[in-house]
Amino acid sequence: MSELTLNDLATRMAEIDFAMLSTRSLNGKIAARPMSNNRDVKFDGDSYYFTLEKTHMVQEIEADPVVALTFTGSSKPDGAPPFFVAAEGRAELIREKPAMKSHWNEDIEKWFAEGFQTPGIVLIKVSAERIHYWAGEDEGELTL
Hints:
By secondary structure, this protein is mainly beta.
């Protein structure tokens, strides 16, 4: 079993666009939905996602900021096994436009026509505290 560093994980995760973001719903159940990181993955344990203020997800994060993210990377043509990452951490809701601008790219405009000036837009920052990964028979865990 090899031990990957956070930098090793960041390199592997740079190819993954979508994550499943899980929150605890207001009725106590687990709610998950796909979220695009828009390849904003200079992964240092933090990841960023845009959404709208009037969503269940924002209400759930306000009630309980503990969240989970799961990522799946596909097999490489060289035959390397698929790559999986599960991260647990805390979410923060950011509403300041300068912070949003630093994580914005034009691909996001397909969901937010007025860019980061879209009324009600929110940036979710997830700071991982524990990361578990699997790559074939290799697996490991990092605590941040």
